[in-house]
Amino acid sequence: MDAPNSPLNALFTPEFVEDPYPTYRAIRETTPFVKMPDTNMWIATRYEDCQQVLRDKRFGHRYTENLIEMGGPEIPENAALRSLSNMMLVANPPDHTRLRSLVVTAFNRRSVEKLRERIRKISHELIDDFIDQGSGDLVRLFNHPLPVIVICDMLGIPKEDQERFTGESQIGGRLIDPTPMTPEELEAANEGTLETEAYFLSLFEARRKKPEDDLLTALVESETEHGKLSKEELAANVFLLFGAGHETTVNLLGNALLALYRNPEQLQILRDDLSLMPNAVEEFLRYDSSVQLTARNAFEDCTIAGHEIKAGEEVMTVVAAANRDPAIFKDPDKLDVRRPDVKPLAFGGGIHLCLGAQLARLEAAEGLKALFERLPNLTLDNIQTPAWKETITLRGLKELPVHW
User: Fold this and answer.
1) Where are the domains of the chain?
2) DSSP code of 156?
3) Total-model pTM
4) What angle do CA 17, 363, 50 make, to 5 degrees?
């Protein structure tokens, strides 16, 4: 058992969700690579260790097996867990290679750069819609609808249907948290999954009958040397593209604004020179990452950081802790929008490097620029005790009350 004062005891508590970084720092300084008591899970908090595990081909996912162990025979009846098990997010080669190859081109740097003007236009149109209000919840008014509209456009979701996605998030981060969902949370996730699956399945059928110039059509028609997507894989991975295509960016925008307003000197530096924005976005990703942790399972016995990891054991790479490793970053707990050579692990690494990394960066940069250009008097109403989502893997604000 852990000692009563072990920093591991603070993991995943309500206080931890409010501010996980003191706990991360304490673990990194005392037990940087440690096995959780009575489990098969290791916790890695140093940059080099996390990077090694994420890139090491001896590690991969066994989410499907973990879900079966957690849910037993109920898995087929749990739509959310069944959908998750078909996503490239949790797949290993060769399935991961087959699934990712179908969409990777749409999210590469060159393809995403072509979206810059569209993202800028959407940003300004959203501000046009609410600028006369003078105040409101920026998550609802801007941070959430911006990436949702962008991914809807990419997928080819009709404009008349996009409103159904611009409200509360349809995909919850609790599904991939290391702590089990409550029955109520799982029921809500199942209902949301079934509703969204039904909608996408109707769109797939429409695209089969009448192809369009969009990602949905490309996926419906896709056939590579690895073979087509099954119906279940198609639904699950469009679900994934939609969810991953907006939820982390919503959190990135909110976390970035909160960090800037808590550090007004950095806010002023950025306002005075918006050309710093690309570098600043990397710093926001490092300083308070939308994705806090990601797990890998060992496929074979191996040694990491001097520890023997047995096949099947899980290593939780706490990338948010790694992003504040003083061995890599000077003054890691300080926000510095001019920090040189920022290389955060916010998007993971290896073959599972986040597909939407370039899109998230561009949306954050253009979105923040538009806010600073159009709302010079933007002020956050509550920077001391903001309302955080009750998720651990994904970190973001429930709301962001502001006035301008």
Assistant:
1) 7-403
2) T
3) 0.89
4) 50
3-state secondary structure (DSSP) of residue 388: strand
Rounded CA-CA distance 21/8 in Å is 13
121 is written with which tokens?
A: 């236009």
Distance CA 230, CA 305 (A): 40
Q: In the structure encoding, which two tokens stand for residue 135, read together?
A: 């105040």
Position of tokens 């199942």?
Answer: 190
β strands within 9-88, DSSP E: 33-35, 41-44, 59-60
- The HSE-up count of residue 368 (CA atoms within 13 Å, CB side) is 31
Structure-block tokens of residue 40: 């098969």
Contact 42, 307 (CB under 8 A): yes
Letter for the amino acid at 371?
L
Distances 351 to 39, 61, 126, 265, 340 between C-alpha atoms, Å: 26, 11, 35, 38, 26
Per-residue pLDDT tens for 116-174?
999 999 999 999 999 999 999 999 999 999 999 999 999 898 888 887 776 554 445 66
As assigned by CATH, the class of the 7-403 domain is mainly alpha
* ∠ Cα 370 375 379 (to 5°): 120
C-alpha 326: how far from chain center: 24
Helix (H) or strand (E) holding 136: strand 135-137
How many Cβ atoms from other residues are within 10 Å of residue 367's Cβ? 27
Q: How far apart are CA 120 and CA 125, in angstroms?
A: 9
pLDDT per position as a tens digit, 217-271 = 888 887 544 557 777 888 888 888 877 768 889 999 999 999 999 999 999 999 9
Residue reference for tokens 């997010």: 89
Alpha-carbon span 120 to 123, nearest angstrom: 5
CB 297 within 8 A of CB 61: yes
* 298 Rama class: left (phi>0) / alpha (psi -120 to 50) / beta: beta
DSSP states of 278-323 = HHHHHHHHHHS-SB--EEEEESS-EEETTEEEPTT-EEEE-HHHHT
286, two tokens? 């490092």
- The region, left, alpha or beta by phi > 0 then psi within -120 to 50, assigned to residue 306 is left
Tell me which amino acid residue 106 is: A
Spatial distance between the Cα atoms of 339 and 382, rounded to a whole number of angstroms:
27
Contacts for 56-59: CB closer than 8 Å, 24+ residues apart: 56/296, 56/302, 56/304, 56/350, 57/350, 57/351, 58/298, 58/299, 58/300, 58/302, 59/296, 59/297, 59/298, 59/299, 59/315
The tokens for 323 are 């992003």
Nearest of 315, 287, 313, 317 to residue 300 by alpha carbon: 313
